[in-house]
């Protein structure tokens, strides 16, 4: 029973003094606080595990980096966060932010390069924590429109022994600064993020290699059939652009003797691009020369700076690799990425393998062309041989019989007719010999065609078509360096006849006989007897003297002027 001095509802004292009860309350409160800390730590660990699972379940690198920044801000209560990716030159090449709106981000401007406090982790990749970032000696200050930040926590993200980038967190929301626990949990998250990023990069590399191998296999399948060079090169350019996610791809064919490259194929997809097809680029003092001389790949910052282009070009990192097969250099494959993009290390060997397959396509197309030319030449040689050994001999024999018959003919008109027939046979034999020369000329040679086209063009100014006679192996005997001069001589002589001769007939004769090339242009016009060569005729004389030849202007029979130009070959 309670005493008369105690309230009936009072708790029992359990034999403790008031001081002891106070101490017990403190112990109980401390126990409750520690339980709260344990519960909070458990919740943070659970949140950390959830974050690790969340970032590890995404293999798309850009999306994963965004998840890492968001998870870090949520774990430590940071208002702002960023993940800076470090490039080969130890500057920030990518900067993914959280907590800053797109509008504010646009107002701030370009991403940071990694100077000031952000550069501390780049220089010394260890966690950094400070109560006020603005008071640090290396602080550069913030650019205009940047939100104010004070408390700061940073931690490096490592992939094995390599630093991939850094986590930057600022403005802890429920305290003045970040704690030791915050630092530990961010370090743990950064370690897990490194593993996840490596997995994502390995997946991206495997997927990229798979696409390169598929493109290479497609080129290989093309090699199994009939190869059209232009179509094959267009396929090469298109597949290289798609796999490398490039802005522009060029296939440039090399002429090492002339010292230049010619753009054969241009592929820009749906992106507007300057028309560079057919552009001739000198090799001297360009990045292209380095790729050809070293027979290896070259990486440049911008394709627009590699040469003098007919239109401005702006690209990102550009890979240049040779198209070479069987020790034969065909040209270059140029893969230009969009502005701001950089090449991936795994692209270089795969692009080199792909270029080797493209070079095989060029080699196979050339081999097919050569086989086709051989077939044509063999057939033409057979026809030329039959014409020479059978047709000409029969015509010659017929001419001899007619000559004998003409001597026996009693009537003059019969003898005259027979002589006319003999002349026709001589002309026919001469024409057949010319056809034989043409048949035995390589398919690629077209000098006779160029001469015929040039004479045909003169029909306009003259008012009639000049007569043309070609004699001897003009195509095969005239060297390439002499062809422009030959055409220039014919053009100038016909131009003179059209301007001054007032002729009704012009005869052009080109002969390549006994080691000399001779051009004769004769007209039946008013003549130019006694006139000194001037203007274009002086140029013709100089062209002849250049090769140790002769030039002459003389009267034609029965009237007109004859220009004769002759050089040794």
TrEMBL record:
- Output the Gene Ontology terms for molecular function: ATP binding; carbon monoxide binding; heme binding; magnesium ion binding; nitric oxide binding; oxygen binding; oxygen sensor activity; phosphorelay sensor kinase activity
Q: Name one GO biological process term.
A: detection of hypoxia
State the InterPro entries in the record: GAF, GAF-like_dom_sf, HATPase_C_sf, HATPase_dom, Sensor_HK_TwoCompSys, Sig_transdc_His_kin_sub3_dim/P
Q: Does the keyword Magnesium apply?
A: yes
Domain of life, per UniProt, equals Bacteria
GAF domain: residues covered: 60-207, 228-372
- CC per GO annotation: membrane
What CDD domains does the database record attribute to this sequence? HATPase_UhpB-NarQ-NarX-like
Cofactor(s) needed by this chain: Mg(2+); heme
Q: Which PANTHER family did the record assign?
A: NITRATE/NITRITE SENSOR PROTEIN NARX-RELATED, OXYGEN SENSOR HISTIDINE KINASE RESPONSE REGULATOR DOST
The protein here is known as Putative histidine kinase response regulator
Q: Which organism is it from?
A: Phytohabitans rumicis
């Amino acid at each position: 029973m309670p005493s008369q001095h105690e309230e009936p509802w009072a708790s029992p004292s359990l034999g403790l003094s008031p001081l002891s009860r106070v101490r017990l309350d403190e112990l109980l409160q401390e126990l409750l606080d520690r339980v709260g800390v344990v519960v909070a730590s458990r919740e943070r660990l659970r949140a950390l595990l959830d974050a690790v699972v969340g970032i590890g379940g995404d293999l798309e690198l850009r999306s994963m980096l965004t998840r890492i920044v968001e998870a870090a801000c949520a774990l430590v209560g940071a208002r702002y966060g960023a993940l800076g990716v470090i490039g080969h030159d130890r500057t920030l090449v990518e900067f993914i932010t959280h907590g800053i709106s797109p509008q504010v981000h646009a107002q701030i401007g370009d991403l940071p390069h990694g100077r000031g406090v952000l550069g501390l982790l780049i220089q010394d990749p260890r966690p950094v924590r400070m109560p006020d970032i603005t008071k640090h000696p290396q602080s550069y200050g913030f650019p205009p429109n940047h939100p104010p930040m004070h408390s700061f926590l940073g931690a490096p993200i490592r992939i094995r022994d390599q630093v991939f980038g850094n986590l930057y967190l600022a403005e802890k929301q429920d305290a003045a600064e970040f704690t030791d626990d915050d630092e530990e949990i961010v370090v743990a998250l950064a370690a897990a993020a490194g593993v996840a990023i490596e997995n994502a990069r390995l997946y991206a590399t495997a997927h990229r290699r798979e696409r390169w191998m598929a493109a290479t296999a497609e080129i290989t399948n093309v090699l199994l059939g009939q190869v059209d060079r232009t179509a094959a090169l267009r396929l090469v350019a298109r597949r290289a652009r798609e796999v490398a996610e490039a802005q522009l791809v060029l296939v440039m064919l090399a002429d090492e003797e002339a010292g230049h490259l010619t753009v054969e194929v241009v592929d820009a997809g749906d992106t507007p691009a300057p028309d560079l097809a057919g552009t001739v680029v000198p090799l001297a003092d360009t990045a292209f020369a380095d790729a050809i001389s070293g027979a290896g790949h070259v990486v440049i910052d911008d394709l627009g700076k590699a040469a003098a282009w007919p239109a401005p070009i702006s690209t990102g990192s550009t890979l240049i690799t040779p198209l070479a097969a069987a020790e034969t250099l065909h040209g270059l494959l140029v893969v230009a990425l969009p502005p701001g993009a950089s090449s991936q290390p795994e692209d270089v060997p795969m692009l080199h393998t792909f270029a080797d397959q493209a070079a095989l396509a060029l080699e196979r197309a050339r081999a097919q062309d050569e086989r086709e030319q051989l077939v044509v030449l063999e057939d033409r040689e057979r026809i030329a041989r039959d014409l020479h050994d059978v047709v000409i001999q029969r015509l010659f024999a017929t001419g001899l019989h007619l000559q004998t018959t003409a001597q026996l003919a009693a009537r003059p008109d019969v003898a005259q007719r027979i002589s006319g027939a003999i002349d026709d046979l001589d002309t026919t034999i001469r024409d057949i010999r010319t056809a034989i020369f043409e048949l035995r000329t390589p398919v690629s040679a077209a000098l006779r065609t160029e001469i015929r086209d040039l004479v045909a063009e003169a029909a306009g100014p003259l008012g009639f078509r000049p007569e043309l006679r070609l004699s001897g192996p003009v195509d095969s005997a005239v060297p390439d360096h002499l062809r422009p001069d030959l055409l220039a001589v014919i053009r100038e002589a016909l131009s003179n006849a059209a301007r001054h001769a007032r002729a009704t007939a012009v005869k052009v004769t080109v002969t390549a006989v006994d080691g000399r090339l001779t051009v004769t242009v004769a007209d039946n016009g008013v003549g130019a007897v006694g006139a000194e060569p001037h203007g274009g005729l002086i140029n013709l004389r100089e062209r002849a003297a250049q090769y140790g030849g002769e030039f002459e202007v003389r009267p034609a029979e029965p009237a007109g002027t004859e220009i004769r130009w002759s050089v040794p070959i």
